[in-house]
Write a structure and sequence with these properties.
147 residues, 9 helices, mainly alpha
């Protein structure tokens, strides 16, 4: 039985890949993108480009939008405008569902949870559990939008 895209993304994420790599890799087969290359390309997007900026799962989803609708001909303004509109559509859906786009804002509630005494491993586990939901959500929103 084939795995769904969201199951694949979860398996990758639970296996230690970041949110962005997990989302993008789950769409590689559909867009004939080499998985290893995709994972490398998305690696730096995790954790909001490691700065708490736009969520890596959302960033990778925007790459998927580009794979389907991105401009590849120099003066194709229609493709560029269509891709921008569809990017905005995805980001609006993600923001509406989660209330924010940046890791900093998405994780604000979790970062306020007192870290138990010790090495902080529980805080990391809680963040990964939370982000696992964002990975699934990004994939599901893309699928609902026809990607």
């Amino acid at each position: 039985m084939d795995m769904s895209k969201s199951e694949m993304a979860q398996e990758l994420y639970n296996g230690g890949f970041n949110c962005a790599a997990s989302v993008l890799a789950s769409f590689c087969e559909d867009y004939e993108l080499d998985t290893e290359l995709a994972m490398k390309l998305a690696c730096g997007l995790g954790g909001g480009c490691a700065e708490g900026e736009i969520c890596g799962a959302a960033s990778a989803a925007v790459i998927v939008v580009g794979l389907k609708y991105g401009q590849c001909i120099q003066d194709d303004r229609g493709a560029k405008m269509n891709c921008h509109a569809r990017t905005t559509q995805f980001l609006n859906e993600f923001r509406q569902k989660h209330g924010a786009l940046t890791c900093r804002d998405l994780l604000a509630d979790i970062s306020q949870v007192p870290t138990p005494a010790g090495d902080g491993k529980e805080d990391v586990k809680e963040r990964r559990r939370f982000c696992a939901g964002l990975v699934t959500s990004a994939v599901e929103i893309l699928e609902e939008l026809g990607y």
